[in-house]
Design a protein that fits this description.
Two copies of one chain form a homodimer. With 631 residues, chain A is of the alpha+beta class. Chain A has 21 helices and 13 strands. In chain A, α10 packs antiparallel against α12. The longest helix of chain A has 33 residues. Chain A starts with a helix and ends in a 20-residue tail after the last helix. In chain A, 56% of the residues are buried. The interface between A and B is large, with 87 and 88 residues.
């Protein structure tokens, strides 16, 4: 499976290899059985060790001691997804969100002063955006930062409980400073949400004056992360605490910005933080791989009921069990390749000094869509893996419970998935022309109605390959066509195009007065169109990966995995294809039969397919897999 | 909503009312933040208090101090589903499984000697059936109980690790005795699995001689239950330790039984334990109600993004949010009524002295099917409720995390759901004629092939009402027909009939040599047919409930809830209806539109529908629901 591992490892194979080696050399973390305080202390200590490896410097600029490898930095976060996810999230808060905000929203002054201390963990920080009352609708945050020209200071204030910062990672225990998102007010006028660096604890760990810190307490999972709540009572910070890349205040209180429109500025600022969302998707993908690796290994050794040879049958030999695990495994492969492509796109975008606004918005949409689809897949697949291991899968010692509990919040943090898919649809409908991320239902309906000019299937890296496949689709009309990649690609494209056109038609009927109602009634179509888009993009990434695989045997295997991704995806949405005359009844049945066929074909390769993820063995140690058959 | 509560409370309204009052008078249990040891201690103490109320006596025979109200006993377990589920499970182990085994499998001697101490909790016990190596396939258990005629004793022995009893509730901390399922061997011959009462701890709580007790440790949830592992090293128990209602050994070692066939005897014994499965379904249903009540209350107060009136919109006003919660709520109503009907059937069957074997097997199949469908629904609906509350839903203080984690094992314990649905299909195919519960794939395929004589839609209590509705279906052909109950019932019936016929056709192709392969290839059809059956039975229970509701307004509301159950059920399986020509494309779209319509119609009643469950308020207290809109 070495060749397959190489195909999976792709461009950042070296980073992955290094981290695997480091992980293999470590004793496995054992969060099982720890209480909240112990778990937090352990993860804090591990975060410190991680800082000492220097690896977190990877994504930061060389001029401050970093290595400027943005793609590699995301991949190294992803790799943490194989281990205790609390560590991944805590690292993501420190270096991805907090460090990322300073890097992307701050200017040279902030970089010089803070980045080295952030990289070394000398300055542990928080990303204080979400409030109790506002999460998805970030523009409506209620914390204020009012400029006092006489003192040359901003006054950061929490007007009421709904405006308190909530669920903030690193806040309850370790954070010393927070990037606080607040409405910037100067000269009596609000200029929208900006980020400010506010000290929250002194050197002895006591809350800073005027700052109230509460503990969110125990959570469903991720209990190694100290989430808390922050309230500010007229806390004063210097004018330079404003992260001023996209908006600044002169000493006299004059507001200046390179982007005049408040909305556009705000979403440009938000857009620079896309890296966090991409990292979450990647980690979710790796947690899913770990769960499936455990479940497949168990299903190969667990035997129940006697078969025709008088031997007990391995449960992975039952079709029902294959259907629980193998389509999920195929989708995990598909999402892996899409993720790799997204990381490359992010890396490329960060390399350029001139930012193409449309391209940036397209990247944000891709990140949003892939995050939603990958984290929902994680929730579903890890659930299936747990159930597939029965009682053993319910015991903490067998890892699946923490995988399930830790990843559960991924579907709603770093952007609620339902909201994210709406962003995707809006981006597609407006060709990323305007304030992509403004999601108030009215604005969405109006924009879409005004700006949609017809869906054009976006190009992906695999476009040429896909076109070649589509052109080469044979004219055959038997059921074997369901295994033809050109036919599959065409079906996915057609679904996306048709869904978007239909959605636009609905939204175009909206007037100023009916925009909300029209949008709301079409909401299920919005979500369907977005999903159809993401699934097409994912397929094309898979096609590209197969295309660049030079080993025949491996390519043959990947081809079958790709079939299973495609056919199980069509299967679960086949009602749509039937309703819209894209599949006949018999052809739809052939799709279902195709899923069963590929499950059977891949059964003997299941172990190889999960082994190819090359998850360090200590993360796959579980008593349910220990010893011989009678263990 | 008082009227609606009465409809829901049904026949055992008095039991439900009593328990609500007792619950309301108690301080809420607060397992949040406890470690495993503290949680176990708390639940043990609560179990003691529950014993002191005398309520666990409800289901036991009056001659030993019980009240002989089997239905009431199940309902009282169900009510525990509103609170900490660890207590429900621990009570279920003590009085349902352990007490139930003594009652159903033992004879007068055992009843006299043990039932009073079991009811009072003076004798805490375990139900030791599952082994590490065998769970679903109980017939292949490996623990042995070999009769030694010279000593007049059974020797209970665990031959290897795979034969150790695993996941046994009450074993790690509190149990003194276990009903141990083992292969009975006498005179060198095995007579299959029987149950034996084996002391596992002495009066001081030390493991009995020859008994090894291990702790299963932390689990995903239900950490108030002390699950453990039991191994026996040639442990001697008197001949009378055998629970000998269905099989006995004379002092000289002669085996006797009223049921000659080993298989039939075994499944008859298992069948008497059906009550546990029914109680799990009921508790899962009540946990689901609690999760939905929390999520609906949150969705009414949580507002995000601005609407047409310049006010922030309650998230329950978004169609996407309604679709997450309201179809799940409708299904919860449907399953509630089906559960009530099942409990009545159980109650009736226990009243009769003469057991009709076919009827008993039909009851077991109904219990298996409803347990599978209800617990999967719980897993899905509680997941949806968690996600619908975003970050707040991830905090332990807001209850949803423990609901999710505790109920997660319900889909695989008390019978793995996938296995249970196969039992259902087999029962239907064989008209409950033979060893219903023998699920080895070969036996299943052969039985089905030999015995299937054509699917006959089973009668339910609502049969007459349903027939009247079907007959009254108007001949109209517009899309409004999707709201016609007769049309809906016919569609459900037709799907069941057609699925079963198709399945039988496939299985009938099996020969002795191909039986396994044929069965395995048809496995997805097996699961589909079983689900179609259960969903039809559930619909008919709902129809009967609506029919007996005498209040017009309430009936009107329930009618809409029933529509939503039906239409969302068809929607998620509409590919099948399309593929089999049961729905045209436009009609399928009308079904989807019908779901949206009923979501809109029920939106204003959502709060009332969850309030009607009359869950004691202290179980709905959550910080995310506290205070005013800005709390």
């Amino acid at each position: 499976m070495q060749v397959l591992t190489e195909v999976l490892d792709g461009r950042w194979a070296a980073v992955r290899g290094d981290i695997r080696e480091q992980m293999a050399a470590q004793r496995p973390p054992e969060p099982c059985g720890l209480d909240v305080d112990q778990h937090r202390a352990l993860v804090s200590e591990q975060l410190r060790q991680l800082a000492d490896t220097g690896r977190p410097r990877l994504g930061f600029p060389p001029e401050y001691g970093g290595e400027g490898d943005v793609g590699g930095a995301v991949v190294s976060f992803e790799m943490l997804g194989f281990g205790d996810l609390s560590l991944m999230v805590k690292a993501g808060v420190q270096w991805g969100l907090f460090g990322g905000a300073v890097q992307s929203l701050g200017t040279e002054h902030h970089h010089e002063r803070y980045l080295p201390a952030i990289m070394s963990l000398e300055l542990p920080g928080c990303f204080a955006m979400t409030e109790t009352g506002h999460g998805s609708d970030v523009q409506s945050l209620r914390t204020t930062a009012t400029y006092d020209a006489d003192a040359g200071e901003f006054v950061v204030h929490t007007p009421d409980t709904a405006a308190r910062k909530d669920y903030i990672g690193n806040a309850a225990r370790d954070g010393r400073m927070a990037a606080v998102f607040a409405q910037l007010v100067t000269g009596g006028r609000s200029h929208g949400v900006h980020a400010f660096l506010v000290p929250i604890r002194d050197a002895d760990g006591r809350p800073a004056s005027g700052v109230t810190i509460e503990d969110c307490g125990a959570k469903a999972g991720l209990n190694g992360v100290d989430n808390g709540r922050l309230s500010f009572n007229h806390v004063r910070v210097p004018r330079t605490a404003l992260l001023n890349r996209y908006g600044d205040v002169r000493p006299d209180g004059t507001y200046t910005s390179p982007i005049e429109n408040d909305n556009r500025r705000f979403f440009t600022m938000l857009g620079t933080l896309v890296r966090g969302r991409i990292s979450v998707a990647g980690s979710a993908g790796n947690a899913t791989k770990r769960a499936l690796a455990l479940a497949v290994r168990y299903a190969e050794r667990r035997r129940q009921f006697y078969g025709p040879e008088g031997e007990e049958v391995a449960i992975l030999d039952y079709l029902a069990h294959q259907r629980r695990l193998l389509p999920a495994l195929a989708r995990t492969y598909a999402l892996h390749f899409a993720q790799e492509e997204l990381v490359s796109a992010l890396d490329a975008s960060q390399g350029t000094t001139e930012v193409d606004a449309t391209r940036q918005r397209a990247l944000e949409a891709r990140a949003a869509g892939l995050k939603a689809v990958t984290t929902w897949h994680a929730t579903g697949a890890i659930q299936a893996a747990r159930e597939a291991c029965g009682g053993a899968g319910y015991l903490a010692e067998n890892v699946l419970p923490s995988l399930k509990a830790d990843t559960d919040v991924f579907t709603t943090f770093e952007g609620d998935n339902t909201v994210l898919l709406q962003l995707v649809a809006k981006g597609l409908l407006t060709n990323y022309r305007d304030q992509f991320a403004d999601l108030s239902p009215i604005a969405t309906a109006r924009f879409a109605a005004e700006q949609f000019v017809g869906a054009v299937i976006e190009r992906t890296a695999a476009r040429q390959v896909v076109e070649r496949l589509v052109d080469a689709t044979p004219a055959r009309d038997d059921d074997e066509i369901v295994f033809d990649r050109g036919w599959q690609c065409k079906l996915f494209e057609d679904r996306e195009q048709h869904s978007l056109d239909g959605l636009a038609r609905r939204l175009r009927a909206a007037t100023k007065d009916t925009a909300f109602e029209v949008f709301n009634t079409a909401q299920d179509h919005v979500l369907h169109a977005a999903r159809a888009h993401v699934e097409r993009v994912v397929l094309e990434a898979f096609v590209a990966a197969v295309d660049r695989c030079s080993d025949d045997e491996t390519r043959g295997l990947l081809d079958k995995v790709c079939d299973l991704y495609v056919l199980s995806t069509i299967e679960s949405d086949r009602a749509w294809f039937l309703e819209h005359g894209r599949l006949s009844g018999p052809r739809a049945k052939a799709v279902v039969a195709g899923v069963n066929q590929r499950c059977r074909d891949l059964r003997p390769h299941a172990r190889g397919l999960v082994d190819a993820f090359a998850i360090p063995e200590q993360f796959l140690r579980a008593p349910m897999l220990a010893g011989g058959e009678d263990g």
